[in-house]
Give the backbone structure.
Amino acid sequence: MDSVEEAGASRAPSDSAPEVEAAVREAIAHGGGKITFARFVEICLYHEARGYYAAFAPAGAEGGRSPASDYFTSVDLHPAFGRLIARELALHLERALRGGAARVFAVEIGGGRGLLARDILQGLAAESPPAYDRLTYLLVEPNAGSISVQQRNLLPEFAGKVAWMRSAGVNLPLRKVAGAIVSNELLDALPFHVLEGVGEAVGAQATAGLAEVFVAARGGATGLLQEVVGPVSDPRLLKRLDDEGVGLAPGQRGEVSLDAEALAFEMGRALAVGAVLIVDYGDEAAGLYDVRRRPEGTLRCFFRHRLNDEPLARLGRQDITVHVDFTAVSRAVERAGLRVQRVERQGEFLDRHGLSSFVAKLDADQPRIGREAFVRHRRALEALRDPRGLGSNLVLVAWR
């Protein structure tokens, strides 16, 4: 076993999903006493029985719960989000049709509760009937519980228009897609490694000035879960930061998701003609690893709408997430042969596609809908472009 030095500890929490905690401890035992954060997050979020995302199910189902119980996304705020994305997608769907495609596809990776699909389909039906008539909306989803929720929200209204594909991991089983591939707040939910800047040698990484943070169990498999620091596990992590021209100061932490980069590449490779659209919270590499802005990295957890920094607690029962490196994502889709058209803030994207028209219509409808409904909708629309919140998310559009 590699030598490690202790960085922090947490008691094995009693409120973890037992199957998930057992899987984490088994992985630690098989991993020689420690596992990467990427492996830890993979188990906590995607354990086949009780992982955080695998456990989603329709309301009323035994053990069923929804991500909305822990956090909100733009989709949860207002249908205008999906309707405005539909305006962007329509441009690329119509372009594919003009290029000779007999049928076009909108592929959504990780469709949540199906609400974005619903709003996009309604938007396309209203604003681009030719594209809608020749469209299949395909949801690529790893777990059956989420598919059940999506079907309840999309059927029977869109029967014959929507289809599902079961797929897990970053290997996207699609090729030669004519149309658009979409993800919304997906890449931030993929496994990631945690690195830490060091001021002295740690194992073999003396010249790199970087170490990796692992998850271990103190004193054996049943001991307290804790963080330990050791040599970097994968040279690709060092290469990523080196290629981007960034580093970590001594004591600074930063996260690297090889899976997010790999999935972005797969999305680009699957596309024959059309566009990839990725919405997520994140930053370009220079800002993401700026020690003045993010000395402790971006790792955060959500549980019942409360933010915390305790990833070793509530295993399988809370979301664990980091900001997306859009420099890496942009380079990944470019390696797949796409051209990045733009990367912009969500607020700018929505304003450019006509968010103000939704606000103007709402203002005109105020006497009809009443004051309470007006205020609720107006606040939601403003929240979509609020630069202090969801409006600061990034939107990447790349096309072939």
Remarks:
- The first helix runs from residue 18 to 30.
- The two ends are 47 Å apart (CA to CA).
- Confidence is low (pLDDT under 50) at residues 1-13, 204-208.
- The first strand starts at residue 5 and ends at 10.
